[in-house]
Amino acid sequence: MHHLDVAGYAAVMDDLLLIDRCLDGEAAATRELFRRHRARVHAALYRILGSNRDMDDLLQETFIQVFSSLASFRGEARLSTWIDRIAVHVAYRHLRRKGPPTQPLDLLDDDLLPISSDGEHRSLAREGVRRLYAALAALPPASRIAFALHEIDGRSLAEVAACTGASVTATKLRVWRARRSLEKQAAADPILREFLGDRQEVTP
To answer: Is 0.70 topped by the overall pTM?
Structure first.
């Protein structure tokens, strides 16, 4: 057995032991599971939805579903992937329920904004982010989620497919359609076009 296989097996066993403790009603285990996965789930929801007044509720909804479904976890995938699937489902339902956002977006993650000390450039980048998410809001939820997880959150196509329950081929097609739609909108929007160009320059 390779070292990575041993490490992966140990991680799965650790997940299963933590779940058993949660199912036994151990409060410390419940807090530990939430602590381990909260930041990643919050980041995924944030990348998909942008700044959102419902974010805390959506995070809470995700973990309510996680804890209510723990008994069904069988270890076929990593616990993190299983939790991410629930988060994606919560985001998908929110997008279907809410439709396009009506509030301004103010997403300022450092990995979305080009590195610059120029205040004017950051202001333009902020507007670029706002227009990016306005453009994403026009996409079907499945395409928006696939694009956000792959292009913004930086996950591989295989990881996105695992999180969304789609094939890699379908995931690649959704990302391509989203990118094509954004490129069309950017052709008529200089600020969005410049922002997307800056992101391509700083993305490895």
So the answer is: yes
